């Protein structure tokens, strides 16, 4: 792609707000739609919720890796004709990527996520369930995670571990939780963070 002048970073606050709203919408609607699809194949609610959570985590991981590769290529290309300091080049690269979303091969990320889920020992074996059935959710999460990397600072999710202490600043308890239990049995949805600060709390199930 030939060098084109990067746009000035404007409206980043509104873009950030839109991405956060999109993350909340996926949690409130598209996550539940994916759970309904999975319930046709898996009876156990915990397994269904684990599948969706891992799909979210793997989608962010795949999108961030893809973004890193695109960023390297764009920086090399813009660096040839760019006249400015390292900081302004970094901003120009992020603006360029944000404007040219076609640089991202989201289908490749979706395939990578599904392959990772097939190898996850906590999930049903590939013969029992084809995770392609929730590829629409995975695609949305990958696109969202990729766009979140163009912000300064970027938005990301916090990765949880089963058995960790419940942190009310990071999570809500699910309705079927044991509200007296201090430990997380499993995660339903990851919290959204910005520079180490929780922007949107996630959801967990706590049990003794």
Automatic annotation (TrEMBL):
<comment type="similarity">
    <text>Belongs to the MIEAP family.</text>
</comment>
<dbReference type="GO" id="GO:0035695">
    <property type="term" value="P:mitophagy by internal vacuole formation"/>
</dbReference>
<keyword id="KW-0472">Membrane</keyword>
<keyword id="KW-1000">Mitochondrion outer membrane</keyword>
<feature type="domain" description="Mitochondria-eating protein C-terminal">
    <location>
        <begin position="16"/>
        <end position="206"/>
    </location>
</feature>
<keyword id="KW-0496">Mitochondrion</keyword>
<keyword id="KW-0175">Coiled coil</keyword>
<dbReference type="GO" id="GO:0035694">
    <property type="term" value="P:mitochondrial protein catabolic process"/>
</dbReference>
<dbReference type="GO" id="GO:0005759">
    <property type="term" value="C:mitochondrial matrix"/>
</dbReference>
<dbReference type="Pfam" id="PF16026">
    <property type="entry name" value="MIEAP"/>
</dbReference>
<dbReference type="GO" id="GO:0008289">
    <property type="term" value="F:lipid binding"/>
</dbReference>
<dbReference type="InterPro" id="IPR026169">
    <property type="entry name" value="MIEAP"/>
</dbReference>
<dbReference type="InterPro" id="IPR031981">
    <property type="entry name" value="MIEAP_C"/>
</dbReference>
<protein>
    <recommendedName>
        <fullName>Mitochondria-eating protein</fullName>
    </recommendedName>
</protein>
<dbReference type="GO" id="GO:0005741">
    <property type="term" value="C:mitochondrial outer membrane"/>
</dbReference>
<keyword id="KW-0446">Lipid-binding</keyword>
<keyword id="KW-0963">Cytoplasm</keyword>
């Amino acid at each position: 792609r030939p060098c084109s002048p990067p746009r000035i970073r404007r409206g980043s606050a509104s873009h950030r707000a839109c991405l956060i709203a999109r993350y909340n919408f996926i949690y409130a609607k598209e996550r539940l739609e994916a759970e309904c699809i999975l319930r046709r194949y898996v009876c156990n609610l915990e397994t269904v919720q684990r599948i969706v959570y891992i799909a979210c985590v793997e989608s962010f991981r795949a999108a961030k890796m893809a973004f890193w590769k695109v960023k390297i290529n764009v920086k090399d290309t813009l660096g040839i004709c760019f006249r400015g300091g390292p900081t302004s080049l970094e901003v120009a690269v992020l603006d360029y990527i944000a404007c040219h979303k076609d640089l991202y091969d989201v289908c490749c990320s979706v395939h990578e996520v599904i392959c990772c889920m097939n190898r996850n020992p906590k999930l049903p074996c590939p013969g029992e369930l084809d995770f392609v059935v929730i590829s629409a959710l995975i695609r949305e999460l990958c696109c969202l995670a990729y766009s979140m990397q163009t912000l300064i600072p970027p938005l990301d999710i916090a990765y949880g571990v089963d058995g960790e202490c419940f942190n009310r600043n990071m999570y809500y308890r699910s309705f079927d939780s044991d509200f007296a239990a201090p430990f997380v049995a499993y995660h339903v949805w990851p919290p959204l963070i910005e520079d180490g600060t929780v922007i949107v709390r996630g959801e967990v199930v706590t049990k003794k």
